[in-house]
Write a structure and sequence with these properties.
alpha+beta; 15 helices; rod-shaped; 532 residues; Beta-Lactamase; six-stranded antiparallel barrel; Rossmann fold
Length: 532
């Protein structure tokens, strides 16, 4: 290591002795200025946390997507609640008309198959209208009556109709395949609706957690009775669903059943596709919160393509500066969560979550930073080239002026031609030197100048033959590299001779040496210096 520092120090000393051209100095100056500004900008960007791929960028990306998803889900839930309330009111009104026509009250519906059939037939149209709105995957109503109160499961078997979409491939299309899941078979045949392969005449209310609770509803507004179930497996199917349930009132304002809509897991996934971002795909969840834990088996999960999220296990949430960290047993996610203005029958608040896999973020962040740093490197190279071009353009007229002075260009009158570089200070200096040169030609050298040149000539006579050869190449205008090529020796040897020459001639650098050479040239005594 010490040997390396010694070589670096030796090179710097010789570089200073040989001298550096103006263009190189300007190039280094411009390049250093740009580099300092660039580094300061990078430090400022990193300090502010806005570096591409930073945690702040991720937080902003998650915030935008989460806000869009939360707004869309809030709008969907409000729409479904409004339509379910309207369905409940329409059921109440229609049911009252049917009972009046039959001269019956709701207490007479039990064990009356014909009345039950007429009620379901009359209410079918309102149910189909809700389903055809394409805002849900199913619609239903259940009335607290049964065709046979003496049947084995009569305590939980209740009349009603349940319509569902099957074979969903898209959301919002007009031509959806509708099936008859619950209700009297005569209605399905009359309406020419295909019956579900797991059709049943009545509902099993034991599988609906909020049914008994809603039958005890005693509020003034139906909206206060709107509750959502958690995710559960729909009986006799392979599908998971959540239900929005609204109480149905009889003509006396007493709850006599429920109605509402269904959101299947498939419908939810189609409604909330995986959102693409520069950090990877983001997935949407609707889940009941238990403190900082979420049971994924009870959550509705949007399209999870590329997110590895499965509907099982617990999701643990930990808050951070820009986003939250969510962990399962196998994966970690970054995301945001917000409470939805809705009620679950379990009493837990429903939460909307937007999650992004940690692995996707790190891979994308690494890729973004690579692109950014590559662009920065290209920018620096272009700046260096520009600095070289600008410095060359700036120093070119100065170099031309010096070359013209060395070549002693003359005009038609035999006088030195006036040299213009386009830089007023340089032109004034050249003009002064030309004037002084003319004055020197017209009179003898001052004694002190003549003595100085004589002493320099004597010192030059002490050079060794090898040093004299290098010295003569310097007089001819060669630099260290050119002198090495013309004398067939290494650059290091030339530098060594150069150091010895400077020491013997008592000059500190190349510029001072060339001042003496120029004085000999202007006095017409350059041959004396060459011949020793």
């Amino acid at each position: 290591m010490s040997h390396l520092f010694h070589k670096i120090g030796y090179s710097l000393r010789h570089w200073s002795e040989v001298g550096v051209t103006m263009q190189r100095k300007l190039t280094v100056y411009f390049a250093c200025t740009v580099l300092v500004v660039f580094v300061a900008a990078v430090v400022l960007i990193r300090t502010a946390g806005i570096m591409p791929g930073s945690e702040r960028n991720l937080g902003e990306t998650l915030a935008v997507q989460h806000q869009n998803t939360f707004s869309a889900m809030t709008k969907q839930m409000d729409l479904l609640t409004a339509r379910s309330i309207h369905l409940s009111e329409e059921i109440t009104w229609t049911m009252e008309q049917v009972l009046i026509e039959h001269g019956k009250t709701f207490e007479d519906v039990n064990d009356n198959p014909q009345l039950i059939l007429d009620l379901e037939d009359s209410l079918y149209g309102a149910l189909e209208t809700v389903l055809r709105s394409n805002a849900c995957s199913g619609a239903f109503f259940i009335l607290d009556a049964t065709v046979n109160t003496k049947a084995e499961a009569a305590d939980t078997s209740r009349m009603g109709v349940y319509l569902r979409f099957s074979d969903l491939k898209a959301v919002g299309t007009a031509d959806q395949h509708m099936v008859y899941f619950r209700g009297a078979a005569d209605i399905a045949r009359k309406k020419q609706i295909q019956m579900h392969n797991r059709w049943d005449l009545e509902f099993d209310t034991a599988l609906i957690p909020c049914y008994e609770t809603l039958l005890n509803f005693n509020q003034n507004r139906l909206a206060e009775g709107a509750v959502w179930t958690e995710r559960f497996r729909l009986k006799d199917t392979w599908e998971d669903v959540i239900l929005l349930c609204i109480p149905v009132l009889d003509q006396n304002g007493v709850p006599c059943g429920i109605c509402g809509v269904e959101l299947s897991q498939l419908y939810f996934a189609l409604s909330y596709p995986a959102a693409e971002s520069r950090f990877g795909n983001m997935v949407t969840l609707l889940a009941p919160a238990e403190g900082r834990k979420y049971d994924l088996s009870k959550a509705m999960i949007g399209n999870a393509a590329g997110t590895y999220l499965k509907p099982s296990g617990l999701l643990n949430i930990r808050s951070g500066k820009y986003y939250q960290t969510a962990s399962t047993e196998a994966e970690r996610y970054f995301g945001l969560s917000s409470p939805l203005d809705a009620r679950l029958c379990s009493g837990q608040p429903p939460m909307v979550l937007t999650l992004l896999p940690e692995d996707s973020y790190h891979q994308a962040s690494h890729r973004i930073r690579q692109i950014w740093f590559t662009g920065a490197a290209v920018f620096l190279i272009l700046i260096l080239l520009l600095a070289g071009g600008v410095s060359g353009h700036f120093s070119a007229p100065i170099v031309r002026s010096l070359n013209a002075m060395q070549q002693r260009k003359t005009g038609e009158d035999g006088q030195n031609a006036r040299i213009r570089s386009g830089i007023s200070e340089i032109d004034a200096l050249v003009s002064f030197l030309q004037t002084r040169s003319e004055e020197l030609k017209t009179r003898e050298l001052p004694p002190e100048i003549d003595t100085m040149l004589q002493e320099f000539k004597v010192r030059a006579g002490k050079l060794t033959p090898a040093e004299r050869m290098i010295f003569q190449l310097f007089i001819d205008g060669c630099d260290v590299q050119t002198a090495a090529e013309r004398s067939f020796v290494s650059v290091a040897t030339v530098r060594k001779h150069n150091t010895s020459i400077n020491r013997k001639l008592e000059v500190s650098n190349r510029e001072e040496l060339m001042v003496y050479v120029d004085l000999f040239r202007r006095c017409g005594r350059l041959e004396e210096l060459k011949n020793g």
